[in-house]
Amino acid sequence: MDEAAVGTGRTDTRRTDDSAAFARLRAREFGYLDEGAHTYLDHTGAGLPPRSLVTGSARRITGGLYGNPHSGSPASRASGHLLNEARQAVLRHFNADPAEYAVIFTANATGALRLVGEAYPFTRGRRLVMSLDNHNSVNGLREYARAGAATTAYVPVSGPDLRIEESRLRAALSAGGRIPGLPRARGGGRRSRGLLAYPAQSNFTGVQHPLEWIAGAQARGYDVLLDAAAFVPANTLDLSRYHPDFTVVSWYKVFGHPTGVGSLIARRAALAGLSRPWFSGGTIYAVSAQAQWHVLADDEAAFEDGTVNFLSIPDVTAGLAWINRVGMDRVHAHVTALTGQLLSGLRALRHSDGSPMVRVYGPERADAARGATVALNLLGADGGIVDERIVTRDSASRGISLRTGCFCNPGAGEAAFALPLRRLRAAARSQLDSLEDYLELLQLPSAGAVRVSLGVSSQPGDVETFLTFVSQTYRDRAPGAGGLTARVGC
Question: Is 253 in the same domain as 379?
Fold first, then answer.
């Protein structure tokens, strides 16, 4: 596939060529979908592995000798060389200056977040500012902040698109006054006011939050942690233009293989401000057991605990080469077109009386700042919500893989279902016996939503399969009829 960038105003011929190219890519790399009659609609949960990456990985591993990189043996040096290649490939992919950024390999994005949380200087007077729209692995940072006596503040989402109001973000960043001695502008040696953590793209609604917030927060004295896990599978992130202090990704979400490898891409100056609470094998230059001292490594190695996944990390290099051959701009255009098809089809789904069959949470048009993740609930003929566990059951019987629940993003879910804070606090104080009791207390008709997400392997036929499934299965049916009221938890 041509790697040329896809610009605006492409001709119809070019769009047709791209559609044909992605159809060929589907047949060549993801033929197992159609061979098994699968409809895969959970790309935000996990990307699918191209056949060529898996077979290439097997050839590399069985065709060479690779050992633990913490040595100087030939096998160790071979692994070290491939690990260095992978770091350089990640930096090139994000257009990141090696003098400014370091790449730390982790088990996943969650592992990268833990590295920051446990080592960040959360102390009294500092603030952790987070968007209400965050994955639970980001929400968990508040426990580190609480342990250090730092203040945690959430910035709410609002409106039908469930976006963050920039004025409220600015207010949260400005609250609490200035730390004595903190320069107004970001600069070397200054003491940060705290950490802003938010997603480039919501894993619940698909909303894409502005990357311009990074510089704005830094100008107010904050470090910035960007959760890019849901964003980078179909969008370009240019770290020469935007400069978050910490960026976390999981590579299986981008190109499906390997699983169990993520990255923390961190500014070297920001790494220098972290203080690790422990040390381990691979993170130190020198250590004494009897005298009880240690010297941490002064580069990425100080954060890569134990032995890294040296057999799988080189697959990141291959995966990035693969996605770059496809062309990230073309992937973006492809999934945006499919998202438009999906949203348009959902709006058209109606019961016989004209009432809508679907409620979408977040932007309802693909031309908004949104990704290819669409959260929704199906509505019965009486307007009631069809419980998502029923949708899981029915869709599975049709060979459709999608996601249901709260997607590890409780804040976006609370906003989508308009749960008032007083009711949430009442639930926290209650000692109830079952999920059903909590749902009744929260006055929820269902415990979550349905999420449909598209990716590089998706085709228009996948969207049509889902729309047809919804129409044929739920038109003119009401919750309570035919077993549509079972519940499931997050």
Answer: no
